[in-house]
Amino acid sequence: MAKKVLIIGAGGVGRVVAHKCAEYPEVFSDITLASRTKSKCDAIAVDVKAKTGREIHTAQVDADRVPELVALIREVKPFMIINVALPYQDLTIMDACLETGVHYLDTANYEPKDEAKFEYKWQWAYQDRFREAGLMALLGSGFDPGVTNVFCAHALKHHFDEIHTVDILDCNGGDHGLPFATNFNPEINIREITQNGRYWENGHWVETKPMQYRRTFDFEGVGKKNMYLLYHEEMESLCRNLPGLKRIRFWMTFGESYLKHLEVIHNLGLDSIEPIEFEGHKIVPLQFLKALLPDPASLGPRTKGKTNIGCIVTGTKGGGKPFTRYIYNICDHQEAYRETGAQAVSYTTGVPAMIGAKLMCESTWLESGVWNMEQRDPDPFMRDLNACGLPWKDIEFKPLDEVAPQQ
Ligand SMILES: NC(=O)c1ccc[n+]([C@@H]2O[C@H](COP(=O)([O-])OP(=O)(O)OC[C@H]3O[C@@H](n4cnc5c(N)ncnc54)[C@H](OP(=O)(O)O)[C@@H]3O)[C@@H](O)[C@H]2O)c1
Q: Which residues line ligand 1 (CB under 6 A)?
């Protein structure tokens, strides 16, 4: 039976989730989109109606406040919440889900506002409470985290007994023609990139300086790009859940102009999250910068090119010689925009959020407790990726160190 869903967050990703849920009335019978600014929800609702013919409801909510969330959930009575607000709201929304008996899904792990530190420990601490309440919380159902975790689970199920190394490659080959803009929330994006990098090897985290390691990789659909080693949240759960894993790293591409701007921003202290005194007001430099930068939602119509995100996985089967598979998706910015009014970075996050919710609503993935994506059966998710707009390839490959040596 089709279910009611409540989507929280009306940014680029919320726009895609609303459009994609509306495309599947047999799964999502009734959709409410709520966010801090109701007018943004209303604008998305008009577009959803124009594109899909479906009416969706809208509401205002401050998701930092549990009582407001509880009141809204009691009014809407959804089966589950799709949280695509900011990572700061994860815990308040999980608390409200527990109080009202509603399932939960998000795309990014909790991060305290005053500390640029994202870790699963806060959300994993909800495990017993969700299990005892008979509720499910699905964590990180975007692309990375999300699809990248499912690609690893697929590799383990269909190719390997043991996975030895994983390299996650995230390439955005899109060009918006502006000197500097971020493709999703600038505050979250810049906090992620300016931190020290980290990868996991032989049971330990190895810390690196920001942008310390660079490689050039030839991405299908995009071409040759420089990519840099970063910390990314899916490594925290994958290093626990992949048997035999010896090393996992994450790489993201950046253009020269983007890095130059970031360096200047950093040198000026504009990426700081420490409040400063300015003309009698306290302001946070990074939040001030966010106000100056283009709204990521405005990049949709002007972004051309493709994203290519995937996993290079090496391992063994039946005690044989190590071999490598490369599993990836290519997504076109303009096609994503035509379908949902958002560019590919929002599209590649919003579609997997809808698929995770679909598998929960259909009971395919539904199970009490707090789950990371690689802990569920990858097959139905991989099937839906192909059917819902993010087709993937799974090919024989060489280890990353052979195709793109260290520079
Ligand atoms: N896993 C992945 O692959 C992946 C990739 C990209 C992004 N993400 C995650 O996806 C989420 C959404 O990203 P986005 O690019 O859509 O961000 P965005 O454009 O900044 O949108 C965030 C939305 O959340 C709303 N919001 C913020 N605080 C709120 C609060 N206290 N109460 C209610 N609503 C609130 C904002 O409201 P206002 O409009 O009023 O500001 C905005 O509409 C983020 O958590 C991001 O980290 C995941």
A: 9-14, 35-37, 40, 61-64, 84-87, 89, 107-108, 140, 142-146, 184-185, 188, 296-297, 346, 349
Residue nearest to atom 19 of ligand 1 (CA): 11
Give the confidence band of 116 by pLDDT, cuts at 50, 70, 90: low
Q: Are residues 64 and 172 in the same domain?
A: no
Only one residue has tokens 């799974």, namely 394
Cα 83 to averaged position of ligand 1 atoms, centre (Å)? 9
Mean pLDDT of 136-154: 98
Whether residue 44 is contained in a domain is answered as yes
The answer on 183 and 36 residing in a single domain is no
Domain match, 121 and 182 both? no
pLDDT per position as a tens digit, 46-78: 999 999 999 999 999 999 999 999 999 999 999
SS3 228: strand
Q: Considering the domain boundaries, does residue 362 fall inside one?
A: no
- Domain housing 186: 147-342+392-403
User: Does 59 lie in the same domain as 31?
Assistant: yes
For a substitution probing ligand 1, which of 84, 110, 346 has the most ligand atoms within 8 Å of its CB? Answer: 84
351 lies in some domain = no
* CA 188 / ligand 1 centre spacing (Å): 9
Q: How many CB atoms lie within 10 A of CB 109?
A: 22
CA of 108 to the centre of ligand 1 (A): 10
Q: Which atom of ligand 1 is nearest to the CA of 295?
A: 19
pLDDT score of 149: 98
Domain assignment present for 238: yes
Q: For the whole model, what pTM was predicted?
A: 0.95
Q: Are residue 186 and residue 94 in the same domain, yes or no?
A: no
> Are residues 248 and 329 both part of a single domain?
yes
The rounded Å distance from CA 11 to ligand 1 centre is 5
Distances 131 to 83, 136, 148, 161, 298 between C-alpha atoms, Å: 19, 7, 25, 29, 41
DSSP labels for 54-93? ---EEEE--TT-HHHHHHHHHHH--SEEEE-S-GGGHHHH
